[in-house]
Amino acid sequence: xxxxxxxxxxxxxxxxxxxxxxxxxxxxxxxxPYNKTKEWRDWIIWAxxxxxxxxxxxxxxxxxxxxxxxxxxxERHFQFINNEKPILIGHSLGGGFLLKYLSENNFxxxxxxxxxxxxxxxxxxxxxxxxxxxxxDVKKINVIKDICEEIHLWHSKDDNAVPFSxxxxxxxxxxxxxxxxxxxxxxxxxxxxxxxxxVINKAK
Length: 204
Prior knowledge:
The chain is an alpha/beta fold. It is built from six helices and six strands.
């Protein structure tokens, strides 16, 4: 293992209040097996892999996610974190997961940068999805600032999956967060995300 700075990236998923909602979701959600749209979540892995040591766990059962299972799997990766100040990225439910975990548990390292991209914090997302086991007390997330040198929040006002108000609530409770606001990025289903890459490359 070389001395590359490490990045731990937790991507999104879906969570439901019950199995019936999950079954209804997968029975009715839009489906296109020929869709080849490229997204930044894959692009950034390519963009970072030469300069950083990137850990991107495939979280358990992401289509019907359970927080306890994600927590167990997340913690199993701690043995591979050798940097004293890694970077953490969470998108959508992955961002909500990091907020819950970091506000309720002790992370073993100081965090250089925490990036929260359109994170879930309330039960008013798209269609049948709910936080369920991922629910947490947003008023307690301010403790995260003590273990993060920088916290970056990314959200677009036209997000049709996670309402922009979720990030406004985070900003209310962590005043020091750097809020990167967009108007026309939706849920960041875009082929590249140069803005976040620029900030990551400035990490100390």
